[in-house]
Structure formats: structure tokens, C-alpha cells
Amino acid sequence: MSQVSADGPRRVEVVEVGTRDGFQMETAVIPTAEKIRIIDALTAAGLRRIEATSFVSPRAVPQLADAAEVVAGIARPAGLVVEALAPNPKGAERALAAGVDEVVVFLSASESHNRANVNRSIDASLEGLAPIAELCRAAGKPFVGAIAVAFGCPFEGDVPPAQVGRLAAAFAGMGADRLVLGDTTGVATPRLVASTLDAVRAAAPDLPVALHFHNTRGLALVNVQAGLAAGVRIFESSIGGLGGCPFAPGATGNVSTEDLIHFLQQEGWETGVDLEALIAVALDVERLLGRRLPGQVMRAGPRDRLHPLEGARCAVG
Amino acid sequence: MSQVSADGPRRVEVVEVGTRDGFQMETAVIPTAEKIRIIDALTAAGLRRIEATSFVSPRAVPQLADAAEVVAGIARPAGLVVEALAPNPKGAERALAAGVDEVVVFLSASESHNRANVNRSIDASLEGLAPIAELCRAAGKPFVGAIAVAFGCPFEGDVPPAQVGRLAAAFAGMGADRLVLGDTTGVATPRLVASTLDAVRAAAPDLPVALHFHNTRGLALVNVQAGLAAGVRIFESSIGGLGGCPFAPGATGNVSTEDLIHFLQQEGWETGVDLEALIAVALDVERLLGRRLPGQVMRAGPRDRLHPLEGARCAVG
User: Fold this and answer.
1) Contact B59/A at CB under 8 A
2) Topology of A4-300 in CATH?
3) Which of A43, B34, B83, B312 could form a disulfide with B51 if both were Cys (CB 3.0 to 4.6 A apart)?
């Protein structure tokens, strides 16, 4: 299966994950109406893939207890694909009943991260995901497998690309429609992106791959460039850079959607997104949360935004 | 002249500009002894090119009135190249008398930025730089020509690569030993880096080129990657990301030296720098200035820094 979309080789799809990945980490619970308003603004800006929420236990993550209401409440412009995470079959049933278009499941590439995240071994996680794949197949909905810490683990360090390949093959065996490689703590590098993609494709040649980078060490966009060079055409990002890096206080997490779109557009990729509208959403989310977000283009403006000459002092010398 | 250094094709040189570019923008004047202590810590970490200061008028920029004392006071480990900016012949005379190894002059690629910065036309700037080139030649010291806003101007927008080529040829005609292309407001993109380097090399084939990127829109390292791919082996950066972006309050300026070194080392380039020692200097500068700097690796740590598993909660799902 080609990873170049039907729209042509210069088209890139961007999956917005901020309302799931970002909002689940906020200590304050965002009102449901505000979540819906923000998702609608994101789709109005042209985004056509939204990872809207996660059907986790409301007791475990009260921030996302309104998952079904959010999915029910958002506008559905033509072509919109609403994704949601499901950590277990019960969550998947709720997600499918709520009307999501694609169900995303996840595990970690390292044993220690998988245990810290879901308190089971990787093999136990794989067994637990198979019934979710069945539920999706029965419902005729795509099933997406996400691999956390795919480029390195904060506890164990390097993750061998062959291990990521093994998990990719397992997802392919379950009939997954797409694989997401998550750089959960921002440790991917361009060379590692290339070698990991090689291993994944050797193990699961027909499985389309999406990449999800964190900008923790400033490397998100150079890693996106490495993914593009290797033929990847789907990338995940978060409005304003919402969503943190849990192992370094104050460090940047998800690459911001505005920064990603700005980069892609400047490099000649079609995204279908209105960048200025997207920046307005990022600033709106910043006001909603009452704290500064790490997005950079939302602050500096796109590269072609001009400044008044009058009164300017440059002081280069 | 090859741009691959004598040390081999995987060697990259990094020029630290923070003590010049960063300190000149601080409202507080940094004590001379602190400047010397920081430069010495940077060279102890392995950096071998330091743009230490600028020999500007002490009245115009009191922050750098101690330029000669700084150059006289720093340690000179083997191989260290001390660079300094000189905006005019008087500054160049002071720089050479103070014992700098290389003199850096500058102009802007756009007329409006050149006027806003030095209140003259580009051609008038070029005329004014010729005597500095003569002073350097007479002193037997290299002469470096820096072009500000080489990838776009905050007032005019796009700068044609041919215009940068014209200025490169002018510097080559003055006998410059190196050209620096400065991305003063962070508007460079990988494609623009490639096309601008093409134009510069067509106009001045024998002039080595260094690149100086700002991370204003998150693009610094992907632009470095583009420069590396085009054969550039000298990059400028600033410890901690010191030095601002004068046109967007709160926006990031210079790419930080730690982030650049971390990236280069991960991609297999030799830099001769001890990254952990460099991070310690960045944290020291942050304490000295009493405000948060934009460097990312100084906050998150290098990618291979491990975290304790005990008590960790990940909450990916």
C-alpha cells in the first residue's frame, strides 16, 4: 500500500491530538462545551483528522469523562476523521457507540514503560488489544496501533529498531490499518527515524506509518523532515504544543500543530490548513488554560509576517 | 577551498556567539569578571571558536564597553580562535590591538534592515567595510563578512538569493576569509537554505560559508541539517539560546549551543565539545541573568539521560 495519499505526492495529513493528549494532562477539567468549541475551530481551520479524546475510565482520568459527549457534540465537516484512544475493550465499545471513525490502541516499545503506563507486560498488552481489533472489524471501523517510546525509553534508554519491528508485525497480524510511532519523551533523531522506519517496513511492509514527535530537545521538525524523506505522509501534533513531557519539569512536549503546518507549507507540502486560523485557535487555547504554551509560530507569527519599519532598532552590531 | 575541515569529513565547528550577541541585549550590564568566567567555562567545555564581544561605541552599547578587557582576560587554550565584531575601522583597530584572532564585520541583505541597523545604504556599508578589510590584511588577521537577514527581512519580506550572492561576491572581492549568513529573525527554511547557498557559491565559489540560525519558528535544526547536506561545516549558536528576537516579544532567538551540539553529536558529527559541561554553563548563565533561557536540552537533558522508574506514572492512554 502506498503511503502517498490519493491527493498526490505533495500532500501531508496532520492528526491533531491536543484535545486528547493535552487536555488529559491538565489539572483543571476543561468544560465539555469548550472542548467542542476548540475542536470545531480546529476543523474549521482545515484539519481533517482529530484525535478527539480517550475512552479511558472516568475514575482514572476525570478530565476525559465527557468523551462520548465531546464526540457527539462536535461538527462533522466533510472528510473529517474523528479518532479516539481506547485502552481496553470496554473503552473501544464506548468509542464505537459514540460514533468515532477510528479507534487507536497503544502499548510501549519497552517493558518498563509499558509496566509504568498500564501495569502489564508487552505480551499481555498485545493479548489485550486483539479483542479491540475484533470489535473494530465487526463495526467496520479502522483500527490504529500506536507504539509509545518507539525511539527510546526514559527508563531503559535505547529501544532496538528490531523490537519496534516486532510490535509492528504484531499489529499488522491483528489487521491494523495504520501504525503510529510515538516519540513519547522526545528522544528521536533523524538517523534513528530512518533506521526505525527501515525495521518497521521490513517487518510489516504493507502497514502505513504515522509519526508522532515531541519537541523536547528541539528535534521535532528535523525528525519530521527525516520521516518525509523516508516517505511518511501522516504526522501527529498538538495545537499550541499542548501536552507535557512528564520527565522534565518545564520541558516541551508534543510538537505544536502550527509549527508543523508552518514548516510543511514552507517546504511546499499541501496540508489543507489555514495557518492564520490555526494560530488563532492556539492563542484561544492559551487564554482558556491561562498559561503560556510552547508553540513558537503562535508567538512569532509565520515567517512572512512583516513588521513596521518605523521606529525599529535592530542592534545587530 | 573545501569546506570540510582538515580534521575529516565528520567534523563540524561551532562558533559561540552568546557573550556578544546575547550580552549586548541584556539591560543589566554583566560584570567583566563574569563574562570572562563564562567564556573560560565555554572553552573549557571544548568550544574553540568564540565571538567574544563587539568593539562598538561604549556610548552606544555600554553593555560591551569592556570589550578589550574581556579579550585580554580570557584564557587562551590551544586552538582557540577569538572572534569579535567591529562595526567600523575604529572598532577594528581596537579589536586588533586587543588581540582578537578574527574580525567580523556585518551588513544586512535588505536596504531597510541595513538602514534600521546602521542608518546607511548597503553600498555605503560596503564602502565602509573595505578599510576594515585592509586593517585586517595589514595585521595578518582573518576578516569575516556577516550578512544579516540573509534569508528574509522583517520589513521587506523575501530577500532574493541573488542579492545575497551579490554581497557574497563583494566580500570575496574584499578578500574575506569566511562568510556568515545570518537568519536574524528566524525565517530561513531548508529549501531557502539550499537555494541561498547555491546562489552564494555561484557568486563566490571559494568563500567558505558559516550559517547562523535563529530558532524563532522551531526551524533552526532542520535548517542546520539542510546546511550540512549542502556541505557547510561551521555553524554559529548561543549558549542557552541567549539573545532575543527583537520583533516578537517572548519569541526565541539564537539556536542554543547545547541543542546544536546535542543534535550534531547524535547525528555522528564530531564537535570536540563536552555536552554535559556545556549544559552546566547554560544553567550557570541562566542563574547569572536570573531568567529562564530558551535552550531545551539544558532543561530536558540529553536524550540518553535516564529517569528513575520507581514511582513513575506515564499516562499515555
Assistant:
1) no
2) TIM Barrel (3.20.20)
3) B83
